[in-house]
């Protein structure tokens, strides 16, 4: 079984399915406070609301306690303490660490510093694997399967870490993937070598089972006029969905700005808010599987040291 | 009679069958220009099969594993001979690696390896270098040797 979750590529297809199965079990049966003896280090070097609260809610519902920080400015990081030293320190107190950092590769580095499990809650423009897991959970719940699904990923595919992680995960399932973005923001091919690329959102809608919307960020465009021109081609409005398949669901990692018009919210296709709230089950699943693995390892050690 | 355009050495290393016009780059990357003994360089020499090649001969030199790794990236088809008493004592086989550690700098300024003391590591597939940490992909010419 997996120990760390730093990149979605660390997880096998079986790992992903076991996490989603556990999430389903927790949603159906409730999250029980079975881990009162566990401490989770919640290290958000970079601010977050949704991901952090989702993880902390999951940890608390599991009965575990949380230590950490929500902003590196209030820690020794401000004095120049390295990621390595911060992790060393927290690993002395916690049973697992959830971390978000603006520097790419910081969670991978953390796995080299400590034996305790590291969960990457986002590292720069690189990976956001737990977001991908909750995205996959949403696809599984709404489509009944992850196999043979047509997924269209839309928006900033060059810099959007959630899009990279999702495209990589979908390679493990027999999905058709269409990448919808302006040319300058298209995804690098190595994330999804067999994906179809297009800049025409309206053409993809009638054939998609899932449309995964992401925001095109203004800061990527030095020319604001160009930004407005490009952005307008990647906005989703209700009238565009008249030819959509019955089972289509629209997802978004949130926060949403205007790339999904509010008139879409009340349609049968909108799933992005449920997608977010279900994140607690996925994150609770991750933590409980990690805690169980930790307990098994400790019990094994005890048996081995007894005379 | 066979004519040698590059003088033989007594004890040291011969790096032969380098691609044409690469010897000077390899000398620079391996810091061979600060070597304390004779360094002989031949460029654009004729080779078998009517191809051209470069050659480097180094008196009183052994190559570390790190140096061999650098050569394997720059000239994977090079042949390396250890010379003793003007005879070939040993031939060292090099091959294009699948992974390199602490050899190349990551070109992503926001990679942890450029922010803290941390050895770099790249996985190599089809001559594409993927950083273990930031997962960005590069070609060799985009990366600086450490």
Strand content of chain B: 25-35%
Order of helices and strands of chain A: HEHEHEHEHEHEEHEHEHH
Beta-strand percentage range of chain A: 5-15%
The coarse overall form of chain B would be elongated
**Greatest contact between two chains:** A-B, 19 and 17 residues
What is the total tally of β strands of chain A?
Answer: 9
Distance between the termini of chain A: 29 Å
- Structural class estimated from helices and strands of chain B: mainly beta
Overall number of strands of chain B: 9
The total of helices of chain A stands at 10
Gyration radius of chain B, rounded: 17 Å
| Widest sheet: strand ordering of chain B | 2-3-1-4-5
Q: For this entry, what is the oligomeric state of its chains?
A: heterodimer
Nearest-integer average pLDDT of chain B: 90
Alpha-carbon distance between the termini of chain B? Answer: 43 Å
| Main sheet makeup of chain B | 5 strands, antiparallel
State the helical fraction of chain B. Answer: 10-25%
Q: Which geometry of chain A do the CA atoms define?
A: globular
Topology:
The complex is a heterodimer of chains A (307) and B (146).
Chain A: H1 13-29, E1 39-44, H2 50-61, E2 65-69, H3 83-91, E3 96-101, H4 106-113, E4 118-123, H5 129-143, E5 150-154, H6 161-170, E6 176-180, E7 196-198, H7 201-204, E8 210-213, H8 224-232, E9 249-251, H9 272-277, H10 279-305
Parallel strand pairs in A: 1-2, 1-3, 3-4, 5-6, 5-8, 6-7, 8-9
Helix pairs in contact in A: 1-5, 1-10, 2-10, 3-4, 5-6, 5-10
Chain B: E1 12-19, H1 23-29, E2 39-46, E3 52-59, H2 65-74, E4 79-84, E5 87-92, E6 99-101, E7 121-125, E8 128-131, E9 137-138
